Amino acid sequence: MTFAKFIDGSHIITAGWDKTVRLWDLKTRDSKILVTEADKVASANFSADGSRFVTALWNGIANARTRDGVLLAKLDHAGQRVNWAELSPDGKHILTACDDTFARIWTLGQDMSRSPLTLSGHEGLVKTAVFDSTGKRALTASFDCTAKIWDATTGARLLTLTPHSAAVNAAIFSPDGKHVATACLDGSVLLWDATKAGKPRTVAAHTNKRANSVAFSPDGSRLLTTGDDHTAKIWDVKTGELLLSFEQHGDIVVNGGFSPDGHRVVTASKDKTAAVFDADPKTRTQAEIVSVAERLAVSP
Q1: Tens of pLDDT along the chain (300 residues)?
Q2: Chain centroid to CA 282: how far?
Q3: Which end of the chain is more exposed for a tag (fewer CB within 10 A), N or C?
Q4: Residue 235's CB: how many other CB atoms inside 10 A?
């Protein structure tokens, strides 16, 4: 399991090395396979309105599909692994991150053989590429030890976030777009000003283990990180205080995210499961969190 994300308050999408994308109903615990892709799936992100999703594949393809899995567009990256793909907030564009050092912005509905807008400037593979909440900016995380902010319309580079002490494994905008959080292979997680150059603040760490993903809560007050230490952790953004640590996975935690209301977290692990946890430290003690964990078994 390499990817899990809430679509709404009662459904999550999961994907992984078994090449499948699954939709889970948390109320009934039922699941269905939306599609079986041709290769391992690195990410599977839904549009804001839930009508379509896009997958990033190891074989160099990103596929845009309807909610039922019908193919809308096939985005070819010439055999270079696609590490991330997501739709813009308005659902009209797809942003992809690729092993070839580039991120690309594709326009749905136009002739897909036309060249996309290429975000060029990284010197290492691009691990993630995300839009801000307006769709006007893009953010890339690269193994060249930088994250970069781009104009999503022109492709102009607006800001380079550096230095990092190791390759950047993931990066995300805060909900208000004023800050960026980055997760690095040395376990560090940094908080940056997204509007101007400056020194970052260390807000979290997975000591001596890779930090694999980072996500803000919907109100921007908390940060979720996942790591090779088999944990997912929630941090207070302002103080850097560790609020909760989820230690129930049996292997590397690859990805995680908050529910739309911020009360729950979903995580994806190489132990072939996704898990949903209560994310509110005011309503659960650590022992109670373990007991209410909803673990969703996934086939190899």
Answers
A1: 889 999 999 999 999 999 999 999 988 888 999 999 999 999 999 999 999 999 999 999 999 999 999 999 999 999 999 999 999 999 999 999 999 999 999 999 866 667 899 999 999 999 999 999 999 999 999 999 999 999 999 999 999 999 999 999 999 999 999 999 999 999 999 999 999 999 999 988 898 899 999 999 999 999 999 999 999 999 999 999 999 999 889 999 999 999 999 999 999 999 988 999 888 877 665 555 444 445 665 433
A2: 26
A3: C
A4: 24
Q: What is the DSSP track for the chain?
A: --EEEESSSSEEEEE-TTSEEEEEETTT--EEEEEE-SS-EEEEEE-TTSSEEEEEETTSEEEEEETT--EEEEEE-TTPPEEEEEE-TTSSEEEEEETTS-EEEEETTS-TTSPPEEE---SS-EEEEEE-TTSSEEEEEETTS-EEEEETTT--EEEEE---SS-EEEEEE-TTSSEEEEEETTSEEEEEESSS----EEEEE-TTS-EEEEEE-TTSSEEEEEETTS-EEEEETTT--EEEEE---SS-EEEEEE-TTSSEEEEEETTSEEEEEE--TTT--HHHHHHH-EEEE---
Superfamily of domain 163-299: YVTN repeat-like/Quinoprotein amine dehydrogenase (2.130.10.10)
51 close to 34: Cβ distance less than 8 angstroms: no
37-155 and 163-299: identical CATH topology: yes
Please state the domain extents for the chain. Answer: 37-155, 163-299
Best CA proximity match to 226, nearest among 241, 207, 206, 248: 206
As assigned by CATH, the class of the 37-155 domain is mainly beta
Q: pTM (2 decimals)?
A: 0.94
Output the six-digit token pair for 207. 């000591």
Token duo for residue 247: 């230690």
